[in-house]
Amino acid sequence: MVRIDRPGKALTRLDVWSGEFDSADKSYTVLWGIEAWWGKENEAAGYTPDPSSDIRTLHDSFTFPAKKQIDWLDVYHPDPSQHGCVDLLRFHLPNGDEYFASGGFGGDKHPQIPQGEQSVLEGFDVDVEGKETRQLQPIFKD
C-alpha cells in the first residue's frame, strides 16, 4: 500500500488513468493509476503514462474549486474477499454541483463519506499490482 497525501493540505487537482483488464471470460475498464496535486506538489501511484504515449489508456483530470467540500465519494470494486481491481472512482462537490467519474462500470459501490456529511479530500492509500489498482482508500482532512 502506498500513501499519497500531504497531511493538512486539500487536493487541488486529481488525475486518474484507466484501461482494459482482461479477466477469464470478460474485459473490464479498471483504474490503473492516480496522481494527486497540492498546488505545485504532486505524487503518483500506479501506471500513469503520458496520454499521448499509450493510446489505449484513458486519462481524466479534475481541478478542485476554492471550496473543496465533497458530499459523497464512492469507490467501486469487487467484494474484498475476491481478487479484483478498482473499477470506478466517483465523487460530487455540492458547491457548483460538480461531478467527477473515472474508470469502468463494474464492481460494487462502496460509499466513503457518511450520508449528510461533507469532507475535504487530502490524498489516497493505493495498492497497485502490475497496471491494476487493487485498493483505493481516500484520505480526508481532519
UniProtKB/TrEMBL annotation:
Domain of life, source organism: Eukaryota
Protein name per its UniProtKB record: Uncharacterized protein
